[in-house]
DNA sequence: CGGAAGTTACGACATTAATCGTAATAGTAG
DNA sequence: CTACTATTACGATTAATGTCGTAACTTCCG
């Protein structure tokens, strides 16, 4: 049919992931920024992400996100674009990802 | 009427709290355990919580949770019982606390 | 086949954070 | 007023973790 036959980097079964692992993965500001960026663009490689750290560090963070079950990475030639595991996460932790991604930004401190 | 006149430890305005701060506070296993315990019993002091660390460490973790806007602490004589800021958290981050507290435990790895 | 580009694994360094023991503080009962 | 209890602030130690530079690896294209 489609003949897509895509290959993916090995990723954990979400049922075996504890919610604490997910929270720990999302605790880092850079990783949260990566998750938000992936939510916005849908799919991206490490080098294409606009984050204030070096590419090798981005790769490290994406690796942690993948181990925590948050993203899946596709093999496409020399490129390895990653995306959020939306549907699976919604089934495993209903409402969690949405609650985090749609959280309103903090109000600035009141100035006199 | 009731004349309760309760006093509380200073706590931040939830509107000024970033979701990243909340996630970072919940990232530690001990703190997540504390939050679950408070969810179960409603209110508790540091020394009454059943966690595998010393009381001074529990106090440290509760302090972090309070700074992150997750718990509020009441002054009651020599006792300082803390509780979750449920309603406020629900208004600030709808669905977040429930998603975390009601997350199903991980499935054990398949054994042959 | 060989050069070029993108990605990640590896090792090292710096920073952060968790934990504990002890001391200081505040309230309560006798 | 004094002894006792509960809590937290403080300082020190140890364990994690984020960051980077470099090298190795894979794929694509001429």
From TrEMBL, chains A, B:
Domain HTH arsR-type, residue spans: 11-104
Keyword Cytoplasm found: no
Entry keyword Transcription regulation: yes
GO MF, one example: DNA binding
Naturally occurring in which organism (per UniProt): Bailinhaonella thermotolerans
InterPro entries per UniProt: ArsR-like_HTH, HTH_ArsR_DNA-bd_dom, HTH_MetalResp_TranReg, WH-like_DNA-bd_sf, WH_DNA-bd_sf
Protein name: Transcriptional regulator
Coiled coil feature spans: none
Organism classification: Bacteria, Bacillati, Actinomycetota, Actinomycetes, Streptosporangiales
Superkingdom of this protein's organism: Bacteria
PANTHER family xref list: TRANSCRIPTIONAL REGULATOR, ARSR FAMILY, TRANSCRIPTIONAL REGULATORY PROTEIN
NCBIfam families cross-referenced by the UniProt entry: HTH_metalloreg
Pfam family, one: HTH_20
CDD domains from the UniProt entry: HTH_ARSR (cd00090)
PROSITE patterns in UniProt: HTH_ARSR_2
Keyword line: DNA-binding, Transcription, Transcription regulation
């Amino acid at each position: 049919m489609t003949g897509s036959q895509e290959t993916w980097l090995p990723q954990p079964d979400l049922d075996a992931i504890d919610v604490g692992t997910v929270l720990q993965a999302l605790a880092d500001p850079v990783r949260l920024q990566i998750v938000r960026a992936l939510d916005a663009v849908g799919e991206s490689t490490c080098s294409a992400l606009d984050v204030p750290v070096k590419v090798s560090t981005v790769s490290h963070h994406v690796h942690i996100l993948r181990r925590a079950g948050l993203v899946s990475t596709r093999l496409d030639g020399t490129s390895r674009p990653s995306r959020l595991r939306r549907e699976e996460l919604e089934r495993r932790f209903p409402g969690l990802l949405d609650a985090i991604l749609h959280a309103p930004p903090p109000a600035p401190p009141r100035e006199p």
